[in-house]
Each structure stands twice: as C-alpha cells, then as structure tokens.
Write a structure and sequence with these properties.
CATH class of the largest domain: Mainly Beta
Order of helices and strands: EEEEEHEHEEEEEEEHEEEEHEEEH
CATH architecture of the largest domain: Roll
Structural class: alpha+beta
Number of domains: 2
Helix content: 10-25%
Bound molecules: flavin mononucleotide
Shape: elongated
Strand content: over 45%
Oligomer: single chain
Number of helices: 5
Radius of gyration: 28 Å
Distance between the termini: 35 Å
C-alpha cells in the first residue's frame, strides 16, 4: 500500500487556529473537504500537533484553501510545527485578516476562506477527523486552488474538458417531441430499445419520422423496468437485456438546444403487435436514430 496516498489529487487547506498554550498557528492539510451542503460542514483530518490541540481547546478553526501562488506558504505551514516557531509571525510571509465569528487569524489571497465551529471530533485510523460547521465562507473567483498530487504542487489547466456530447441537428417536430419527453428537465434522460428480428429492426413513430422505441426515465427509476413498461404500453411484450451503450448528445434545432442522454438496451421481443411501431430492414433517414445505433 506504500505510496498509494500520493496518487490522490487534492486541494490544500491552510488550517488556522489560536489557543492559549500554542498561540496562533497555521498548518497544511490536504485532507480538507466539504462534506455537507446544509448545514455546510467541512472535515479536516489531523495528527496530534499544536493545530489539533488548539482546536481541542477552542472548538474553532479557520479553513483557507491555498491558491496556486501559495505553494511556498503550504511548504512552510507543512514543514514547521507550532511547537518550533510561530509560522504566522514570519515577516512578509502569511498575510492575515481578522475573522468575523471566531478568534482565529484568517489568510489573505486564498481561493476560499471558511470560519468553522467544531461539531464532531473522532479518531479515524491514524488521524483524527474534525468536522466543523462553516459559520461564514467566502471565495475568490480569480484565485484558482493549488493542486497537490504525487508529491508535487500543480496548477489547474485553464481549459475545460469538453463535454464529449455529439451535436445532432434535428427537425422542429422532433425537437418539440423531445422537449415534451424531457418534461422541462435540463437534460432529457431516456431508455431506448434495439429490438431485432432476422435482419429487421423495430422502430417507433416519432414526430415526423421513426426512431428506436424509447421513453423518458425519471430520476431514481429503473431504466429496464420503465422501458419494458413503455414497450408493453405500446403493445410489445419485450424483455430488456444487456446495455448496449450510452449515447450523449446535444440536440439542436435553430437556436434551441436540448441535452439528451440515451441508455440503449438490446431487447428480446415475445409478441409483436403495435400500431405505432414497425419492422425496418433499411434504416430510414433520421440523424438521432443513426447516432443511437452507432457503436459506442
Ligand atoms: C502539502 C501538505 C499536506 C499535508 N496534509 C496534512 C493533512 O491532511 N493532515 C495532517 O495531519 N498533516 C498534514 N500535513 C503535515 C502537517 O502540515 C505538518 O505536520 C505540520 O507541521 C503540522 O503543523 P503544526 O504542528 O503546527 O500543527 C501536510 C503537509 C503538507 C506539506
């Protein structure tokens, strides 16, 4: 298990505290994370040192997430102990400001600052988990967080990873049908069925064309069950088999866009018979249909 921990990528918290025995202090803690929205809870994982002892005494601490030009500050906060020197008193190093709710110095130039009051302290393996409720928090959009991984500090790339969705132009009638299916949701999530018989494929009437039999699925519902129910409702007795793939698209019509995710099942049919569906040996022209049948 040696070195496994180095392969996580984290931000680094500069944890500030102030107690009667060890005075003001700052330490580096990469194990600093947001663990609940409401209440807003932040967990830090510490070994026994002046930071922990100050928190044990005062039940408050400051979380200051280091920004990408604060690697040197992290080295100092992580490289010396409050038993050795007053790190915050080093000249021209840490710039602090007065907290609003707690008697602890907070740090300037960070990507996020949160003033926390302890709600839970619990031993976790060889460290101690301290969970704090954020009494106030602020962030700086301009200051991106420093990243720590494999023993090195890194900067986040400025370029975002593209969504990977394929853009597909569809007709106005199809857009209106897909939007109806989406029920106003930001992303249409649907299950679609590939049902083959000899060299024919079953397609369902959809707007001004034909498409794989499909149905929108609500959050938390089981895709297979919803799809089988839908196929039943259009007169098909079908069992959904393995997942054939996922197709993530941005459907476009004029200026209108709809993001759509289709989970496509290979299905077996038992009894045919639907007015709305028909068998096709050659695929009709339909961009979304063809995209759904592409190999994932
Ligand atoms: C990048 C970095 C991340 C660290 N993360 C943690 C951590 O999450 N938990 C921890 O207990 N120590 C961590 N440390 C070590 C402490 O920061 C270090 O032991 C520090 O001297 C403790 O300060 P104190 O003795 O003044 O409380 C980290 C050190 C560095 C350099």
């Amino acid at each position: 298990m040696d070195n496994v921990h180095r392969h996580f990528a984290t931000t680094v918290g500069l944890i500030t505290t102030k107690g009667t025995k060890y005075g003001q202090n700052v330490m580096a803690a990469e194990w600093t994370m947001h663990v609940s929205y409401d209440p807003m809870l932040i967990a830090i994982f510490l070994h026994e040192s002046p930071t922990y002892w100050n928190i044990e005494e005062t039940r408050v601490f400051g979380v200051n997430i280091a920004s990408e030009d604060q690697a040197e500050l992290v080295n100092i906060a992580g490289g010396y102990s409050g038993t050795e020197i007053d790190k915050l008193a080093l000249p021209n190093t840490f710039e602090s400001y007065r907290a609003q709710h707690i008697d602890v110095p907070m740090l300037q130039g960070c990507s996020l600052n949160a003033e926390c009051r302890v709600t839970v302290i619990r031993k976790m393996g060889d460290h101690i988990m301290v969970v704090g409720k954020a009494l106030s928090a602020k962030f700086d959009e301009e200051n991106l967080p420093l990243i720590y991984t494999r023993g090195n500090y890194r900067k986040l790339s400025r370029s975002k990873i593209p969504s990977g969705r394929k853009a597909k132009r569809i007709t106005p009638a199809q857009m209106s049908q897909f939007r109806k299916m989406s029920g106003g949701q930001f992303v249409l999530k649907a299950a679609a069925a590939v049902i083959r018989q000899r060299n024919e494929i079953l397609l369902e009437k959809f707007a001004d064309g034909w498409i794989l039999p499909m149905v929108a699925v609500r959050k938390g519902d089981n895709y297979k069950e919803v799809l089988e129910k839908h196929l039943n409702s259009i007169g098909m007795s079908v069992s959904a088999g393995i997942i054939r793939g996922i197709a993530r698209m941005t459907l476009r019509e004029g200026k209108t866009e709809l993001r759509a995710n289709f989970i496509i099942f290979d299905c077996k049919h038992h009894l045919p018979g639907s007015n709305n569906a028909a068998w096709f040996s050659r695929l009709p022209k339909n961009i979304v249909l063809r995209a759904l049948l592409e190999d994932p």
